């Protein structure tokens, strides 16, 4: 039985009986095991530095990200034609690329966190309820299948046509596109949990649906759901940057990584750094998120541990 892993009181009682004394230490040191993976530790460090730079952008950015200058398309400082005050050079309007990267990463990460948070929460709730109430399962999952047929880019185009260009339509499109994936994953996990003996025992002793759902079903599914959401974050950031690259996201002169790459493609032949630098940062964010998510899955997934 897995009841010992669902409630602190049951864990304590089971430990006294000698039946589940090894479970808490294994979960208590998951972060230490995660850091033993050098690739995961490096990915977490890179993500932490990027997030820290985005949060501290107003204080560490050397220039205003929307400030124009006469130094147009200046190459990075390490090149022969570079200027020391512009470490990563300037874009086609003379704006400092480093400052725009700091502010742009803030907006890109914010879109990713909000989108995957909303989509993950709504989708997971739908999947869990679908597994908990078997009568709803066929109807709910058919609706999920319909949502799966709409790509995020198509949803973005439709929402922009209705709401206009902006960040809000992109967030809504990314959140809606995350709902069906999270719902299917959550339902698949919850179906296995619902077959466990402690669910039947809870129903037999008269526990309410709310108690069974929150105390036993949700607690046994939350770690696997969080693993999928962490893996989904990199995909959401990439799709969000793609939508901004197509002109569906933030409006100029707002700094956003996908839009910066799009604006730099006009100068790709004679000033490639304008498009390449934000594209590399997007690549680093997505790669770090995927590596960290894979490592988190290896640490928390009980099937892989077994």
Low-confidence stretches: 1-26
CATH topology of the domain at 97-306: MetI-like fold
Subunit arrangement of the protein: single chain
Number of helices: 14
The CATH architecture of the domain at 97-306 can be named as Orthogonal Bundle
Taking Cα atoms only, what radius of gyration do you get, to the nearest Å? Answer: 23 Å
Domain ABC transmembrane type-1: 105-293
Membrane topology: Multi-pass membrane protein
Region (Disordered): 1-20
Organism: Pseudodonghicola flavimaris
Describe the structure.
- The chain has 306 residues and is mainly alpha-helical.
- It has a domain at 97-306: MetI-like (MetI-like fold, Orthogonal Bundle).
- The protein is built from 14 helices and no strands.
- It has helices at residues 8-17, 23-28, 30-36, 38-55, 57-60, 97-132, 137-148, 152-163, 167-194, 197-204, 209-245, 257-264, 273-300, 302-305.
- Helix 6 packs antiparallel against helix 7, helix 11 (209-245) packs parallel to helix 12 and helix 11 packs antiparallel against helix 13 (273-300).
- The radius of gyration is 23 Å and the shape is elongated.
- The two termini are 16 Å apart.
- The relative contact order is 0.14.
Keywords:
14 helices, membrane, MetI-like_sf, 306 residues, transmembrane helix, mainly alpha, 71% helix
Concise account of the structure shown:
It is a multi-pass membrane protein. This protein is an all-alpha fold.
């Amino acid at each position: 039985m897995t009841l010992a892993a669902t409630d602190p009181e049951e864990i304590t009682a089971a430990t006294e009986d000698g039946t589940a004394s090894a479970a808490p230490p294994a979960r208590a040191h998951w972060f230490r095991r995660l850091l033993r993976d050098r690739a995961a530790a490096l990915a977490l460090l890179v993500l932490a530095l990027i997030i820290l730079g985005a949060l501290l952008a107003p204080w560490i950015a050397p220039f205003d990200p929307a400030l124009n200058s006469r130094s147009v398309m200046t190459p990075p400082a390490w090149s022969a034609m570079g200027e020391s005050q512009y470490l990563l050079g300037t874009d086609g309007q003379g704006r400092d690329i480093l400052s725009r990267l700091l502010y742009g990463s803030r907006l890109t990460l914010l879109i990713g966190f909000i989108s995957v948070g909303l989509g993950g929460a709504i989708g997971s709730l739908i999947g869990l309820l679908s597994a908990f109430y078997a009568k709803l399962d066929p109807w709910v999952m058919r609706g999920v299948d319909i949502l799966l047929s709409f790509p995020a880019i198509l949803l973005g185009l439709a929402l922009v046509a209705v709401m206009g260009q902006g960040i809000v339509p992109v967030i809504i499109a990314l959140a809606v596109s995350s709902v069906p994936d999270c719902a299917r994953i959550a339902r698949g996990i919850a179906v296995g949990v619902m077959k466990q003996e402690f669910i039947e025992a809870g129903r037999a002793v008269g526990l309410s649906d709310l108690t069974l759902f929150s105390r036993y079903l949700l607690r046994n599914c939350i770690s696997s759901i969080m693993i999928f959401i962490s893996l989904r974050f990199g995909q959401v950031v990439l799709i969000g940057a793609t939508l901004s690259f197509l002109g569906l996201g933030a409006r100029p002169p707002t700094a956003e990584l996908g839009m910066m790459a799009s604006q730099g493609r006009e100068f790709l032949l004679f000033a490639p750094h304008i498009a390449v630098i934000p594209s590399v940062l997007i690549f680093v964010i997505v790669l770090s998120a995927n590596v960290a998510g894979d490592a988190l899955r290896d640490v928390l997934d009980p099937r892989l541990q077994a």
